[in-house]
């Protein structure tokens, strides 16, 4: 048979050969797109890479192909869905396509190329491109999505087609264009694009495959075998013949290298001539400059030194006087003249006694002798100078002996001490004011200092208010080293020391509350608050106050005790209420149930005895039986609402029962996870956890708008943990509460059980409620 003979060289099994015999004609669908599939309308003949490939496969498989062409990919897929074609070449594998086709192994790799002007041979790095180098490409496309996700630096310009992208490149609207090598092969034959060249590969190739019907897996397997049987050389030639761009790459032209060599030769000759001329000019100029430079350097150095010296002295903020041995001024700079209040140049030849009346000749000669013979540096002291207007200038004076040539001078350095004296007086006044304030503050003012980072700290100041607070004077606390820590109650010293160390190590504010003892042994409650100041050199100070909060603390302790009593009372009332509910539930269930049972029995007896006598009476008896059944259900509901009987089977069973009721009432799935073996809880704790679950599910139903709810009961570290989570809209846990007391009631109920309630929620992210209650010790044991 012809099919078997044609496919005899393919490694097919007997079933595959039989399948080809039964399907000797296959319908091939293809999208008309050059260079893959193109139609010569004059000859009515198809050609292209995919046509040539399918003819090879048909020859090897021994089948006849019936070609059907389409104008777009959606038309091809619609033909596949309607059963008009059997296979299609040249498709890329996509998640959507896998639901429609069976794909073969790739037979061609179509690269995505970066095209630009012929400016050089270097490849373009996409990482180096920015907004100054826009790139044009067809969008929307998978290539555009890949570039946008991989290279965020690219400025991508969308184009409707590959031709428009190349035209934008020629019009200099963009710097580069991206298109696959198949389209580039088609367009490169046009003279319009002859000046373009491939400058890079973006590394996102398109893999072409043969797609076949999903209901013919035998065909997909045969196509894979046929593709593997094709020689690699034939596929390479197919790629070069149809898909290889026709641009001459930079450097492939012989004229290019000839022109380049000629240009380099001309440049080398010109460079050699310029270098020779520059060397001659440099040697001539160097000889001329060396002589002039040496002379100028000596002169400029002397003049510069003189100008700098004179400028620095004249513009110094420090007053400088050169004084002869007879106490007359030889030279005074501008700062000295301004300080002493004299006109420029009027200080020369004046004796020092004019602005220092207390300086007589004997004292001056004594200063001269001490400064001349001193080996310890300049003499310094503080004095005051008389100005011409009769005012006095506080000044700091430093004397230094100077020998200049054959002359000797005493250099007097003057600095205005007015601001320093004012600052010192202000500091003294501030210290006096601080001591006055500290002594009148109703507490103990202190300063804790650390000289440098890592050094131990010590109290540098303690206010006199300490005597009124603890009976010790400030000097006693500082001199004895007692400080504030010596006043702390022995049981609270560890906490005090820990809080102080944390503040010192973290360079943050210090806060501590605890008990202190006065000199008389009286117990008081103290609150320490100190603010930290950290300096650049590592020094740090903590300024704070120790307040007496004994009265407030007693009120706080009494209030805490009162709250504890109220919580115990509330727990007792809740227990009594639950017991009363249980009792009422039993009475309603037992007594009303018995009465209703008797009533139902009497009604049945009446029905047996008299229903046949009167049709109206039978109808009335049926109505009474329905009412009795409704009363039975009402009694069960009331008893269950007061105390569900399922609680007697354990909290785990009660949780599952309540979750199933919630699902039935709201149609919201409720996932329940409870342990198989759970220690028995006391009745109060079991009822409390059950009531919390009821309230939480009620809140989910009313407010959460959830799709699912998860309830998990677990045992963790001698604790029973109930966790309720939903995927609803959530809420802001820090916002002020509205008119509902559901959460407040749950929290109080859990506190009465000695447990804790934690709520985690954010708007739009659901809510998780976690209750932890300690297991009974005797049960754990």
From TrEMBL:
The PAC domain, residue ranges: 379-429
Show where the PAS domain sits: 430-507
Database matches in Pfam families? HATPase_c, HisKA_3, PAS_3, PAS_4, SBP_bac_3
Recorded hits in SUPFAM superfamilies, A to Z, give:
ATPase domain of HSP90 chaperone/DNA topoisomerase II/histidine kinase, Periplasmic binding protein-like II, PYP-like sensor domain (PAS domain)
Keywords recorded for this protein, A-Z: Kinase, Membrane, Transferase, Transmembrane, Transmembrane helix, Two-component regulatory system
Q: Which InterPro entries match?
A: HATPase_C_sf, HATPase_dom, His_kinase_dom, PAC, PAS, PAS-assoc_C, PAS-like_dom_sf, PAS_4
Q: Which CDD domains match?
A: HATPase_UhpB-NarQ-NarX-like, PAS, PBP2_BvgS_HisK_like
Record-linked PROSITE patterns: HIS_KIN, PAC, PAS
Specify the Histidine kinase domain's residue ranges: 583-777
Q: What is this protein called?
A: PAS domain S-box protein
Task: Tell me which species this is from.
Answer: Metapseudomonas resinovorans
């Amino acid at each position: 048979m012809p099919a078997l003979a044609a496919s005899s060289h393919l490694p097919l099994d007997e079933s595959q050969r039989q399948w080809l015999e039964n399907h000797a004609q296959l319908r091939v669908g293809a999208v008309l797109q050059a260079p893959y599939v193109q139609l010569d309308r004059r000859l009515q003949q198809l050609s292209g890479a995919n046509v040539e490939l399918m003819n090879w496969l048909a020859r090897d498989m021994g089948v006849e192909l019936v070609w059907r062409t389409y104008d777009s990919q959606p038309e091809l897929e619609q033909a596949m869905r309607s059963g008009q074609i059997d296979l299609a070449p040249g498709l890329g594998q996509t998640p959507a396509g896998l639901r429609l086709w069976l794909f073969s192994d790739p037979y061609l790799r179509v690269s995505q190329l970066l095209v630009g002007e012929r400016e050089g041979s270097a490849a373009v790095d996409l990482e180096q491109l920015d907004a100054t180098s826009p790139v044009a490409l067809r969008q929307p496309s998978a290539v555009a999505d890949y570039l946008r996700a991989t290279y965020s630096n690219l400025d991508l310009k969308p184009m409707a087609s590959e031709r428009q992208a190349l035209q934008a490149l020629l019009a200099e609207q963009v710097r580069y264009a991206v298109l696959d090598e198949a389209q580039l092969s088609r367009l490169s034959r046009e003279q319009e694009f002859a000046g373009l060249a491939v400058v890079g590969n973006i590394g996102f190739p398109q893999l072409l495959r043969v797609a076949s019907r999903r209901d013919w897996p035998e065909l997909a397997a045969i196509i894979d075998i046929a593709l593997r049987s094709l020689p690699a050389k034939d596929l390479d030639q197919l790629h070069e013949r149809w898909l290889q761009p026709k641009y001459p790459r930079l450097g492939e032209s012989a004229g290019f290298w000839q022109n380049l060599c000629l240009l380099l030769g001309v440049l080398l000759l010109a460079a050699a001539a310029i270098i020779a001329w520059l060397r001659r000019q440099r040697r001539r100029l160097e000889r001329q400059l060396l002589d002039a430079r040496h002379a100028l350097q000596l002169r400029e150095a002397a003049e510069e030194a003189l100008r700098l010296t004179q400028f620095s002295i004249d513009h110094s903020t420090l007053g400088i006087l050169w004084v002869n041995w007879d106490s007359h001024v030889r030279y005074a700079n501008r700062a000295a003249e301004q300080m002493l209040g004299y006109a420029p140049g009027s200080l020369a030849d004046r004796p020092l006694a004019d602005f220092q009346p207390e300086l007589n000749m004997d004292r001056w000669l004594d200063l001269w002798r001490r400064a001349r013979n001193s080996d310890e540096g300049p003499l310094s002291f503080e004095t005051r100078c008389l100005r011409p207007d009769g005012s006095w200038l506080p000044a700091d004076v430093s004397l230094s002996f100077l020998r200049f040539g054959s002359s000797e001078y005493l250099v007097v350095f003057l600095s205005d001490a007015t601001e320093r004296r004012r600052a010192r007086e202000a500091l003294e006044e501030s210290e006096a004011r601080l001591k006055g304030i500290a002594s009148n503050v109703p507490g103990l003012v202190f300063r804790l200092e650390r000289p440098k980072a890592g050094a131990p700290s010590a109290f540098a100041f303690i206010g006199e208010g300490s005597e009124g607070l603890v009976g010790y004077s400030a000097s006693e606390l500082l001199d004895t080293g007692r400080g504030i820590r010596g006043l702390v109650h022995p049981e609270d010293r560890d906490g005090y020391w820990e809080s102080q160390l944390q503040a010192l190590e973290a360079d943050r504010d210090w806060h501590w509350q605890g008990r202190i003892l006065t000199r008389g042994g009286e117990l008081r409650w103290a609150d320490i608050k100190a603010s930290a100041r950290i300096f650049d050199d590592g020094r740090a100070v903590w300024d704070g106050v120790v307040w007496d909060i004994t009265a407030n603390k007693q009120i706080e302790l009494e209030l805490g005790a009162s709250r504890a009593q109220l919580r115990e009372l509330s727990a007792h009332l809740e227990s009594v209420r639950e017991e009363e509910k249980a009792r009422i539930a039993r009475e309603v269930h037992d007594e009303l149930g018995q009465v209703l049972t008797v009533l139902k029995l009497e009604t049945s007896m009446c029905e047996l005895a008299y229903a046949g006598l009167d049709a109206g009476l039978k109808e009335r008896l049926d109505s009474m039986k329905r009412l009795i059944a409704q009363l039975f259900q009402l009694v069960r509901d009331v008893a269950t609402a007061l105390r569900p009987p399922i609680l007697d089977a354990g909290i785990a069973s009660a949780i599952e029962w309540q979750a199933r009721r919630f699902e039935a009432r709201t149609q919201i799935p409720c996932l329940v996870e409870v342990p198989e073996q759970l220690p028995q809880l006391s009745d109060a704790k079991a009822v409390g956890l059950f009531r919390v679950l009821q309230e939480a599910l009620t809140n989910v139903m009313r407010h959460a708008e959830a799709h699912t709810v998860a309830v998990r009961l677990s045992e963790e570290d001698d604790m029973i943990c109930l966790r309720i989570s939903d995927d609803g809209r959530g809420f802001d846990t820090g916002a002020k509460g509205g008119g509902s007391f559901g959460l407040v009631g749950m929290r109080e109920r859990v506190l009465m059980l000695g447990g804790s309630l934690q709520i985690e929620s954010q708007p739009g992210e659901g809510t998780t409620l976690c209750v932890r209650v300690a297991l009974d010790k005797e049960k754990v044991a």
